[in-house]
Fold each of these.
Amino acid sequence: MPQTPDSQPHPALEKTIGSIKGVGPKMLPKLEKLGLKTVEDALYHLPLRYEDRRQLKPISHLRPGGQEVFRGRVLSAGESITSRNRKKIYDVIVEDDSGQIALKWFRYRKPWLQKLLPIGRQVVLIGEVKHFGATREVHHPDVELLPDGADPMQVLQKDPLNFGRILPVYPLTEGLSQKQARKIWYPLVMDNAVYVESRMPQEVLQRLHLMPLATALLQSHWPDNQTDLQALGQGTDSARNSLVFDEFFFLELGLALKRAGVQLEEGIQFRLEHRYTLPLSKILPFKLTDAQRRVLGEIKQDMCSKQPMHRLLQGDVGSGKTMVALMSALIAIENKTQVAVVAPTEILAEQHFRTFDNWLRELGLKAALLQGSMSASAKRDVLEMIATGEVDLIVGTHAVLQEGVEFHKLGLGIIDEQHRFGVKQRSLLKHKGQNPDMLVMTATPIPRTLSMTLYGDLSVSVIDQLPPGRKPITTRKYVGQQRTKAYQLIGKEIAAGRQAYIVYPLVEESEKSDLKAAIDAAEHLKNDIFPQFNIGVLHGRMKSAEKDTVMERFRKGEVQLLVSTTVIEVGVDVPNATVMMVEHADRFGLSQLHQLRGRVGRGADKSYCLLIPSDHYSEDAGKRLQVMVDTEDGFRIAEADLEIRGPGDFLGTRQAGLPDFRVANLLRDARLLESARKEAFEYIEKTNQLKTPDSQPVRQELIRRWGGRLELAAIG
Ligand code: ADP
Ligand code: MG
C-alpha cells in the first residue's frame, strides 16, 4: 500500500543532529554518544528531572537535594583549617531575612574570592545544599553579583535559560554540561517540536484529555511555570503522560492487530483420544498438582480449537512444567502429529530427552535427540526419522530449528526457557509445520499486568503451586572468612548422602580467565577441601559426550559435588542435590540467581543456597543478594529485578520483538498501559482492523513504529 504523504514525519524532524544550531563538529560526537541521530531523536531525549528556579528561595527553605537558587548578604568570610585533615578551606556565611547558610570552597584562589565576596555584598547563589549534621552547606556555589538596589529577578532574567523558570536537567555524557545542553535544547525544542504530529485518533486524544505531541514535548522540555512540580518530579505530569500514552497506544495497536491475525489462521483441531494420556497418568509416580491440571485444561482447550495455540506457560522453578509439556505432547501424538521440544542448552536438552524418552517408551512411542554436536551420520539418521515420521517427538537445542530439519507433520512446538530464545527462533519453529500449536514455557515471571499487556497475542497460563512436600530453601550470604561455614555445610550434607553444586560465573563461555578460575577452583576443592568426595567438573567448553558423562554420574549420585559454570543454570533436575553454592554471586542477575537456586529444593530434603559475593561488590549487587536472602517467591523476585534493573533491560523489548520505548517506563506507567491497551483494541475493532479510510494515518504510523517487527512479535 502506498504511503500517504500526510502521514510522513515532517522533513525537519529527519534532519541530522549535526544540522542543529550550536552543534559543531566537537559537540556532534558527544550527542551521537547519547544515541541521537536526528532532530526527532533529540526531541525525545527528555529531561531526567527538573529544577525549580522560578523564584529565589528564602535561605531557611533551602533543602538538600537538587540545585537551589537564593540570594544573600555576606556576613563573614575567611580562610580556616579543617580539623580532620588540616586542609585550608574558604568559609563564607551569607544571610537573608530568614536565616543563614555556609558556603565552602576547598579549591580556590584566595584573592579572587576575597574580591568577589567582601562582607556586606549582595549576591545570588546557585548550588547544591548539603546537610552535615545539623548544619547546611553549599560547596563551590556559582555566584552572581547583585548591584545595590537591583531587583534580583532582573539579574536572573539576563539568563533566561538557567533562571526564572522550571529548568530541565538532561541526561549528559562526558564533555556535555547541563548549561550546554540547555543551550542546545532550548532553540531545538522551540523550533522543532511543532513539527511532531500526533497520529492518535483525535477522538481518543480529546476524550482522554491528552496533549498533542508537539505541546507535550514542549512542556516536557520546558515546562511552563504553572506546572505541577510534584507530578513533574514523579514523571506523571500530563505532558509526560501524553507522550507515554502515545507510545503505549501504538504498541498495543500492533499487538491487537497481531492478535486479530492469529485468530484468523487455521490451525490443527486436535481431539482428545486419551490413548496415551490416560495410561501415562496411571503409571506416573505422583498425581498432578491442581495447578498443573488447571493449566493442562487450558492447553487442551486451545489444542482442540480451530485456531493455533499460542500459549505462554509460566511457572516458578520446580513447579513441574515438564510434565505439563509431556501431557500436551501426548495429545498431539494421539492425533498422529509430531512434537518438537527445544531447550537452550545441550545439558537441558539431554535431560529432557531422558525424561520424554523414558515415558514415551513405556507407551510404545519413540523420541529422538538432535544436537549440533552429534556426528554427521548420527544426525543424518535422526533427520531421516523426523522426515518419515518414524519418531513421534524430537528434543534438541537450536539444532532443531536449522534448515534441513523437516518434519513429517509437526503438530506441536514446545520451547522451554523461552526467555533464552529470540523471537526469530520461535518463529522458525512455528514455520516447521503448518500453523502448529505453540507452547512456550518460562520460569521468569513477568509481573501479571505486564505479561497480559505486553504479550498481547499470547495467552498465559500460570502454574502457581509447587508439587507437595517441597521444603523451603534456606538462603545465606557468606562473606570473606565465612566461606568455611559454607564448606562445612556442604561437607555435612554430602556426608548425609546428599549432593551439592558449586557454581562459578562465566559470562561468555569463551572467557578464558573465568574458565581458568573455575577449573583452578575445582582443583583446589579436590586437593585441599574435599579430598574425600567425588568431584565432577562441568563447563561449556567440554565435549558433549564428556558433559553427558559427568551429568549422568551426578544424577546417579556417583559424583557428589558438581563444580560447574552456569551451564547448569536452567532446567537441570537432580532432586537429591540439596546445596547450591554460588561463587561471585554479585556477578549474577537476580533471575539467574533464582534459576540457580531452583536447582535445589526439588526433593523431600531441606535445601540450602549459599551466596558468596566477591570481595568488592556494587550497591545494586548488594540489593540483589538481599532480595535472594529475603524471599523465595519468583514473582517478588521478578518485581525486585524489574525495579533494580529498569524495565527495558528486564524485558529486553528488542528480544521480545516489540518496539523500544523512548519515554514510557513499564513499571511506573503500568496503569497507562492498561488504558492504552483498551483504547487500542477498541480502535482495531471499530476500524475493522485499520481498514477504514480515516484510520489510514494511524495505520501508517503503526507501520513506521513497528518497522518489520509486526510479523515477528511475540512468537511470530
Ligand atoms: P520446572 O517447572 O522447573 O521445569 P520440572 O518440570 O523440572 O520443573 O519439575 C521439577 C520436579 O518436580 C521434577 O523432578 C518432576 O518430576 C517433579 N514433579 C513434577 N510434577 C510433580 C507432581 N505433580 N508431584 C510431584 N512431583 C512432581
Ligand atoms: Mg524446566
Note: Residues 286, 288-289, 292, 315, 317-323, 443, 467, 571, 573, 575, 602 surround adenosine-5'-diphosphate (ligand 1) (CB under 6 Å).
Amino acid sequence: MSEGNIFSVSKESRRFSPSDEFRAAARVKSREEYEALHRRSIDDPEGFWLEQAAQLPWFKAPTKALSWAEPHAKWFEDGVLNASVACLDRFQGTPTWQKAALIWEGEPIGNDGEPEVVTLTYAQLHARVCKLAAKLRNLGVHAGDRVAIYLGMVPEAVVAMLACARIGAVHTVVFGGFAAEALRDRIQDCGAVALITQDMSYRRGGEVKLFEAARAAASQCPTLRSVIVHLRKRENAALDDDAFARAFALEQTVVRLTSANDLPPTREHAAPAEVPAEHPLFVLYTSGSTGKPKGVLHSTAGFLLQTQLSTRYVFDLKEDDLYFCTADVGWITGHSYITYGPLQCGVTCLMFEGAPNYPKPDRLWEIVERHHATVLYTAPTAIRAFIRTGEEWPKKHDLSSLRLLGTVGEPINPEAWLWYHRVIGGERCPIVDTWWQTETGSIAITTLPGAVDAKPGSAGLPMFGYAPRIVAEDGTEVARNTGGKLILAGPWPSMLRTVWGDDERYKAQYWSEVPHVYTTGDGARQDEDGYFWIVGRIDDVLNVAGHRIGTAEVESAMVSHPAVAEAAAVGRPDDLKGQALVVFVTLKGGHEPDDAMRARLLDHVAKEIGKFARPDGLRFAAALPKTRSGKIMRRLLKDLAAGRETKGDTTTLEDLGVLAALRGAEE
Ligand code: WT7
C-alpha cells in the first residue's frame, strides 16, 4: 500500500528549554518526573488508570480498569456516570460554578467597532444544557439515539453536544463547512433521529446557509424525525412562532433551540441519564482510504478521563487560565479540546465564530489581546498563513498575556515553529506540538511543557498511556533514526471503539496491517532522545490545510458527475496548505475538456463534499497511467502534480504514451 520507503531528511537539531520560571510552576517539572509517570502508565496501565479514574464524578465507581478482547477494549466497564455531569454539575457548589465556562466572540464587527461577546458561566451553561436536554427528551429522543449537530462556531454547539450527552443520546457533529450531500450521508449512515442546526452562520464576512443545506439533507433522511433550529440572525430571532413555523417548514417537526416561551425544564426532564462507562458518547466522521467516511465511535468514561488528563497536563492549566483553541467544533479537536477536556478542568474557554484573518489579518491577535488569552492552541496551516501576511499584524497587539502555545493537525515545519515562538510567543512561551488523531481521541505525542525541551518540528514524547513505536513493513521494530510506520501498542482509554456500523472495517483498517497493534497510517521516525518526528500520512489520505481528506472520497465525488469517466486525486506539496489537492480526470465521450468543464467539475466536488475539499488543480487527461492489472499509478501522478521528473520504475505501466500525454496537460 505505501509507496517507496519512508525516510526523514529533517536535520533540525535546535532545542528549546522551558524557562526556569515556567518550569517551577509546571505540573511536571522534569524529564525524569515525566518518565516516571509515563513508565507507570505503560508498565501498570490498569493500576494507573483505575487510580486516575477517581478524577471522574461517578454515580457508581468502577472496580475494574480494562477488559481487552483484541481489538475491542472496555474500560471501567462496571462504572456508571454522565459526561455532562463531568463537565458541569461536578462544579455545583464550588467557586467554578460562577466562573466563565465559555467566552464567545462573534465574527461581525458592530457599528460601534466591537464584536458581539457572550459569556456563559458554568451555571449558565448548565442551565442551557438542561433546557435543551429536556427539549430533546420531549421530542422523543432516547438514550442511544443519534443526534446530528450541524452548526457554526457558536456556544450552542457546545450546549448541543452536552445536552445529547446528558440524555445519553449519541451526537454526531457535522462540520458546518460540509455540503448538504455530505450531511445527508452522515445522517443516513448513523440513522440520526434529530438534527440541531442553525439558520445561517457568519464566515469571512459572508453567510453560510446552514439551514438550506439542512433542509436539502433532511428531505432525504427518513430516520430524521425532528429538527431544532438555532436562530443566529437577529432578524430571524425576532420571528414569532407562526412566522418561524412558516419560515422553517420541513416535513420533520421543527422547533427553535431557545424560545422566550420555553418553560424551565422540570427536574425529571433535565436529569442526567446514568449511563455505563462504555455507553457511546459520539460518532465523528473522518476520512479514510476508501470513498466512504468512517464514523469513529467514542465511548464515555475512557474518552472523558484521557481528555481531562491531557488537557490539564499538556496545557499545564491553572485556575486563572484563559484557554483559546481555534479549532472548529466539527473536528475532533473541537470535541476533545474545546468541549470535553477544558470543561472537565473547570477552565475558561475562548471560542471564536469566524475566520482568523477577518476582517483584517490581525483578528486573532486582536482577540488574544481583548480577552487576555493565556494559552493558544492552533494549527500549522494557520501559522503559515500569518507568516505570509507579515509580522506587522501581530506586532500591533499586546500578546503578553500568552504563556503557552500549542499546535496540532500536521507536522509543523521548523521555520513556522520558530516564527510562532518568536513573534507570537515573544520567546517566552513554550510550544507544545501535539500529535494525535480523531481515532486516538486524545493527545498521544507531545512535548510536555515545563518537563521536556522542545525540538522544532518534532511532535515530542509519548503521553501517559500511549506506547508509540516505529516498525518496518514486516512489523518488526526499526532502529532509532530509521523511518517506518507509526503504530500504537495496546489499548488506551480514549481510543475509538469501532467504526459505526462496520466493525469489520475497524478491524481491517486499524488492527490488521501489523498484528496486535494499532496502525496509525502515519510514517515517522524516533530520534536518539526518544522524540518522534512525524513525516505524514502513508495511506491515501491527504492533509490539506489541516483537513483530513481521503483521495478516494474526492474521486468518488468526481466520478459522480455524469461527464466524468475516471478520476485520480493526489497531493502536491504546498507552502501554505501543507498539501494541495490535484485531480486528474478523464471525460466520457462527447464532453469537452475546457475551462467551463473544469469549473463545473470543481464546483461539483465542492457541492458534494464542501468547499474546503475543492481541488486546487484539475488536469484533464485522455487516459490515466495504469498497471497491467488496471491499478492507477498514483506515484507517477504525484510526481507530475508536483512538477517533478517522474522517477522510479515505469516498467509496469501499461501504456507509456499515456504519461507523455499527461506531461503536456495544464491545470
Ligand atoms: C492526522 C490525524 C488530531 C487533531 C487534528 C487532526 C496529522 C495531527 C499532528 C502533529 C504531525 C499531525 C497526522 C494524523 N497530525 N497532528 N502534531 N504533527 N502530524 O485530526 O483529522 O484525525 O488527522 O493528522 O497525519 O494521522 P485528524
Note: The longest strand covers residues 564-574.
